[in-house]
Amino acid sequence: MELSLLGDEKMPRFFVKNSQINDNKIIICGEDIKHIKNVLRKQIGDDIEICDQDTETSYKCEIEKIDEQSITTQIISVLDDVSENIKVDIFQGLPKSDKMELIIQKSVELGANAIIPTCMKRCVVKIDKKDENKKIECVAFGLGSQAKTDIFNKGVGAWSDYAKMVIATFLENYKTAFALKRLDYLESVFDDNATIITGHIIKKAPKVAIEGESFINSNNKLIKYTRQTKSEYMRKLKMCFQSNQFINIRFADNDVVKMGAGGETYGIQIKQDYYSTNYGDHGYLFLMVDFNDPDNPSIKVRTWQPDRNPNINSNLPRSNRDWGIIGPGNF
């Protein structure tokens, strides 16, 4: 439950699934019933705001009927989305150690418009007078300690420490681009002819198939895979960035292999956790990246899958980490 502010009127807001809306009626069930009846002490005729969590449409509703197992409401009007008109700036006191990165990350996830580091009276950290007018020109979300260990400690001797640093920096920039919705950066790092395969979990397959799409059942999940061009992928990313208040990805496990051809070209297998306002999943991301120009990396291949697929690399023993996962050997 949230509190909605509409003009001078404050209304409690409740979230329902689209299936709970029928014509001009909305049925509330579950724990919200107790909160409405016993905490807010709402009565028949009182107004509340209800948000369809599937379509993000909000309604002003009047309570019509209160039962033990459900509350029936009547839709009075569809509410305008005012969230785009609200901009929140955060004046953040300077924290100790490296906590600022976490603060910036979480503030971005919550949709902050601006983050202004501020030296306050009780701040332990102090800024030198000669630096006090300088601005933070770049923000990057770092890799976790396990991800860094995977990059720097695996394959020792196979490639230089400089190459490992280039790869780690690239992954940090890639992760940051999603958190800050930097479509310009992502457009610059994908090769114009890149092989791009996206996927996500769906409830049921559509009746009409679209060219480039395929559907696979994996561990009782229906996965929709789509082969896309760079322009198609960027167009959908733009829509994704616009429709989500926050996007965050976390790399839990990485395995980097230098490709047999292409000079400084590497295959990167990543166990990825993806979170956003409207969607979340966990799966395996594979990137094949050309680092021959370290300042201008180029992604040649990008694929995703939710689980290990026994039809992929089936010739390998199940104990092999590449079993069931798309990787360098597939290209």
Q: What share of the residues does DSSP label as strand, in percent?
A: 35-45%
| Unreliable residue runs | 4-8
Give me the side-by-side strand order of the main sheet.
1-2-5-6-7-4-3
Can you give the helix content as a percent range?
A: 10-25%
Query: What is the N-to-C order of secondary-structure elements (H for helix, E for strand)?
Result: EEEEHEEEEHEHHHEEEHEEEE
End-to-end gap: 49 Å
Taking Cα atoms only, what radius of gyration do you get, to the nearest Å? Answer: 24 Å
What best-fitting shape do the alpha-carbon axes yield? globular
Total of helices: 6
Judged by helices, strands and strand pairing, the structural class is alpha+beta
Mean pLDDT across the residues is 78
Q: How many E-type strands?
A: 16
- What about the largest sheet? 7 strands, mixed
Summarize this entry quickly:
The chain is of the alpha+beta class and 331 residues long. It has 6 helices and 16 strands.
Write the layout of secondary structure elements.
Layout: E1 2-6, E2 9-16, E3 21-22, E4 25-28, H1 32-39, E5 47-52, E6 57-66, E7 71-78, E8 89-93, H2 99-109, E9 114-118, H3 145-153, H4 161-179, H5 183-189, E10 190-202, E11 213-218, E12 221-228, H6 230-243, E13 247-258, E14 265-276, E15 280-290, E16 298-305
Parallel strand pairs: 2-5, 8-9, 10-16
Antiparallel strand pairs: 1-2, 3-4, 4-7, 5-6, 6-7, 10-12, 11-12, 13-14, 14-15, 15-16
